[in-house]
Amino acid sequence: MLVVEDEAAMQQQLKIDLHDLGYRPAVSSSAPEAMELLTHERMAAVLLDLVLDEGEEAGFDLLIWIRHHHPGLPVIVLSAAQVNSAAIRKAYELGASSYFVKGNVPMAHIYSDLAARLVERGTGRPGSYRFGRLEFDPTRRMVKLGDGEIRLTPQQTALVLHLAQGSKPATARDLIEAGLFRSDAAHSTVHSALLTLRRRLDELEEGLGPNFVRASARGYNLVAVT
Length: 226
Known about the structure:
Layout: E1 2-4, H1 8-20, E2 26-28, H2 31-40, E3 46-49, H3 58-69, E4 75-79, H4 85-93, E5 98-101, H5 107-120, E6 129-131, E7 134-137, E8 142-145, E9 148-151, H6 154-165, H7 172-177, H8 187-201, H9 208-212, E10 213-216, E11 219-222
Parallel strand pairs: 1-2, 1-3, 3-4, 4-5
Antiparallel strand pairs: 6-7, 7-8, 8-9, 10-11
Helix pairs in contact: 2-3
């Protein structure tokens, strides 16, 4: 859980409350620091203050970055300054999961929404994930792009779901330890399964597989489809 908040008192309150609720919160006071944490640690969700010390657009810029690099990560926006309807609409258009005005709602409502988002793990309708033009419904095991859709195998669905829920790339070892493969599975087995998944996605659009399921020296992660 990542809290991005530059007001010391609010940051401390969120950290204590989240800890008491059983979460393990990390805190950041700036967008660059938040990007660094999200790049190197797996987070379940982000609580984001839109107006940071870097400027009024810093939170929006960070939201855009999160949606590009971690499209399935729930982002709950908290703001005391950006309270007009245009700002709220902009936050949702950029991919905010929820929007709360500080001081206007009890903190309990925010924490209840957070718990719900962690169950849904998405930014589209409940139970689904939207990655730019692509929609993933784990319940139906369907991936939809435009008018086309494909059905994934149970293991492929579990792979996409696991990658969607994390904020940093997952290695073959991570996927084995998460129980998606047998504990004695070879890393080559994991890579082969992901290659098969990417080829399946290519049936929707040429090149979709490697563009959506990105592979790097640090592992695999999902990227929004533009």
